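Tutorial handout. Part one gives the primary structure; part two gives the three-dimensional structure as tokens.
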Amino acid sequence: MNKAELVDAIAQKTNVSKKETDTILTAIVEEIMLAVASGNKVTFVGFGSFEPRERQAREGRNPSTGKSIAIPATRVPAFSAGKSFKDKVASTA
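Part two.
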């Protein structure tokens, strides 16, 4: 499912126009990204949580030359699925 398909599904379930639904969905995604980028955790009970995680510096290898390279430490976004989400996926498998 892509964003347009998600907008269609939400608009149909909520009886809100597709344009308004797209605006709302875009705002939600932007706010989640801003919150996580500023170091906060965003939690939707039952669905899951988004949070920043620190990745330590490590040594990697260039696959074409085999030469070792230093990979710097960084902060990355992470998602952890909630119990209801996990149960829903498991039950439809």
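Part three, for discussion. The first strand starts at residue 42 and ends at 44. The beta strands are 42-44, 48-55, 58-61, 68-71, 74-81.
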